[in-house]
UniProtKB/TrEMBL annotation:
Residues 3-182 form the AAA domain. It holds the Pfam family AAA_31. This is AAA family ATPase. It comes from Kurthia populi. It comes from the Bacteria. Coiled coil: none annotated. PANTHER family: COBYRINIC ACID AC-DIAMIDE SYNTHASE, P-LOOP CONTAINING NUCLEOSIDE TRIPHOSPHATE HYDROLASE.
Length: 268
């Protein structure tokens, strides 16, 4: 049964999409997992990066089709044998209108993705969800469907505040809709490694969320990550390998944290 992880922060531009894609990528290529990446952002940046990497020029069926038909299976794109994608497109911006017209109650509206994932969870080890950085039907559905959240913390004050708001909103979802989601960890994304501001923000995050909850492996600012937006993900030289290693380390730590939570849950 797949463990579902949403990448979270209510501050835009913190690196959620890149972390979503690269975590899925390393889970498959380095750790032998079968992964489904779900793009719930109408901008479709995660879909674009994966498609560019795989040489896919057209994304026919997207997540909105699955929501409209009540079946996500026909929207799943097999990028590789163990890496699958449910892509997004601009039409998905109409999700709120669709949910309000289809369902009468709020709990039905926010739980629709969870319902749609049930038939396919047995097919994967992990399901990763990339969402817009907004309090919206997109994030509500992702939270309700997810087992875990990985909070992406860019090392700046507004990102830290966005992380705090995200955790508070998780509690709201738990109180009002019985959302059952665990914070797997906080992953710092450094703007300038060695910067006092970056280091200070990470230390404040440890105080807020607990030292054990902040991942030891950070995502460092690397120019190669920007290049991948243009070329797709590559593994051709030492710069590529250095960039991959950053995500391999963080992904390994995330997997171990989730395995620890799962093992502890068996004995509760």
């Amino acid at each position: 049964m797949a463990k579902t992880i949403v990448m979270g922060n209510f501050k835009g531009g913190v690196g959620k999409t890149k972390v979503s894609v690269m975590t899925a990528w390393e889970m498959v290529h380095q750790f032998g997992k079968k992964v489904l990446l779900i793009d719930m952002d109408p901008q479709g940046n995660a879909s674009t990066l994966i498609a560019r990497t795989a040489g896919i020029t057209e994304l026919q069926n997207t997540i909105f089709t699955g929501f409209q038909t009540g079946d996500l299976k026909n929207t799943i794109l097999e990028v590789e044998e163990n890496l699958h994608l449910i892509p997004a497109s601009l039409t998905f911006k109409n999700l709120p209108k669709f949910l309000y017209s289809k369902f009468e109650t709020e709990i039905e509206q926010v739980s629709y993705l969870k319902q749609l994932l049930e038939p396919i969870k047995e097919d994967y080890d992990y399901i990763l969800i990339d969402v817009p950085p907004t309090i919206s039907d997109f994030s509500d559905n992702a939270m309700m469907a997810a087992d875990y959240v990985l909070i992406i913390l860019q090392a700046q004050e507004l990102s830290l505040e966005g992380s705090e708001t995200y955790v508070s909103y998780l509690q709201f979802m738990a109180d009002n809709y019985d959302a059952d989601i665990q914070v797997a960890g906080v992953l710092p994304v450094l703007l300038r490694p060695g910067s006092r501001v970056d280091e200070s923000t990470v230390e404040r995050a440890k105080e807020l969320f607990g030292d054990d909850n902040v991942l030891q492996h950070f995502i460092k600012h690397l120019e190669r990550l920007k290049a991948w937006d243009v070329t797709g993900i590559t593994d051709k030289d030492q710069h590529d390998r250095k960039a991959h290693q950053v995500f391999i380390d963080a992904t390994e730590e995330l997997i171990k944290k989730i395995e620890h939570f799962e093992e502890a849950g068996k004995y509760e």
